[in-house]
Structures are given as C-alpha cells and as structure tokens.
TrEMBL record:
It comes from Actinotalea fermentans. It comes from the Bacteria. Keywords: Methyltransferase, S-adenosyl-L-methionine, Transferase. This is O-methyltransferase. InterPro entries: Cation-dep_OMT, SAM-dependent_MTases_sf, SAM_O-MeTrfase. GO terms for molecular function: O-methyltransferase activity; S-adenosylmethionine-dependent methyltransferase activity. It holds the Pfam family Methyltransf_3.
Length: 227
C-alpha cells in the first residue's frame, strides 16, 4: 500500500505487465486491441499471455484449420490465424453481434488475414449446424469463448467437426472459483457443466489450467479428442 492509502496492483498483475514486456503481443494484436477499445467493445479479449498460449497450442499440433465460437473484436482470431500452418489455412469464427463482427473484420483486414479468416454472424449453434451440413474438411482446433451457458452445446457441436487428435480449448471455466458452487450464476453453471461433460466423454483427455493475472482469477479447459 502506498503512503496515500492507494493499494498497489497485486503481484500477479505486475507479473503480467512484466511478461507482456518480455513476451509481447505482435503489432497486429496490439492494433486489434486498440481498435476494439476505440469501438467501445468490452475488455474481455484474451490477454497477451493467453493469446500466446492459444497460438502455441495451435502450432504444436500443426493446426491448419481452426474453429472459434465468440469472435468479439477478432483479437483471439488474429492470434490463432497467425499460428496456422500449411497450405490454405482456415479459421472459421462465429459472432452473434453484427457490430462486433464489423470491428473484427476491420482488424483482420488490417492484419492481412482476410483470406484466412471467415467471420460468420448469427447464433453460433445454428452456424455450427450449417457448417456441419456443408461437410467441411475436419478442423484441428476449436476455441470456445462465448456465452458460458452454451459451453456444453458448443463443445459437442465443435467435436463433430474436429479431427481425431484435435484440441478443444474453452476459456473462462473457473470464474473466480464460483465454478465450485452448483447454485452460482448461469455462467458459472455453464462452466461447471462443460468440465463435467468433458470428464464424462470417453474420447477426451483433458485438463483445466487455472490462470491468474491482469484479467483476474480464471482458467482454461484444454481437451484432446483421442484417436
């Protein structure tokens, strides 16, 4: 605490700031976040270190095709799209809000990723069903970061589009510890439900990584669809 009674930032926030200097976001991500802030979008995009983790997971499996549920301003889409490998990389991302999608498309164009990322607007479950009906080539990775009550439905829809050996990542599943409370709000219940659904699935190997930093106390679920 400082002499004027103002509480210093907690150590995990200071560590995040230091890490973001040592392991920074690329310019395209910084620009995307700046555009999102200027457009008044909620400050709920992945942090720099979370974005680096997403990119690392995608690169570690040689992902060429990725799915995303919850585009927001396209910050995580920039991270993922830049990490895709191989010929004709594709990221298909779903966003409910027309305004958010417009900001995302602006960011993706500025990052030179328009040919890689397709933003589909509308309810994600409907969009995922339409995508499945198109019988696309299987996807390598799915990132779910949308309304939390829909987590389990998004999980099953994504799994139907995922290749064996592919990864599913679900953000914000710890929610400050409220995931422990079955009587908590709908977001916490949705996070608890998706963890339990993954645990009960006979072809998923998974873990939850608890996170603490500038975005508070939360966690990411990472699951692999077994061959």
């Amino acid at each position: 605490m400082t002499s004027d009674g103002v509480t210093d930032p907690p150590p995990w926030v200071l560590v995040d700031r230091w890490l973001d200097g040592v392991l920074p976001a690329p310019d395209a991500v910084v620009a995307a976040q700046r555009t999102a802030d200027g457009a008044g979008l909620p400050p709920i995009a992945v942090s720099t270190q979370q974005g680096r983790l997403l990119a690392l997971l995608a690169a570690s499996i040689g992902a060429r095709r990725a799915l995303e549920v919850g585009t927001l301003a396209g910050v995580s889409a920039v991270w993922l799209a830049r990490a895709l490998r191989g010929p004709d990389p594709v990221l298909t991302t779903f966003e409910l809000s027309e305004h958010h999608a417009a900001v995302a498309r602006e960011n993706l164009a500025a990052a030179g990723l328009t040919d890689v990322v397709e933003v589909r607007v509308g309810p994600a479950l409907e969009g995922l069903a339409r995508l499945a009906a198109e019988r696309p080539e299987p996807y390598d990775l799915a990132f779910i970061d949308a309304d939390k009550p829909g987590n389990t439905a998004y999980l099953h829809a994504a799994l139907a589009l995922l290749r064996p050996g592919g990864l599913v990542v679900v953000d914000n599943v710890v929610r400050g510890g409220t995931v422990l409370d079955p009587g908590a709000d709908a977001a916490a219940r949705g996070s608890r439900a998706v963890i339990e659904a993954v645990a009960a699935h006979d072809r998923l190997t998974a873990t939850v990584v608890q996170t603490v930093g500038s975005k508070g106390y939360d966690g990411m679920l990472v699951a692999r669809l077994d061959v």
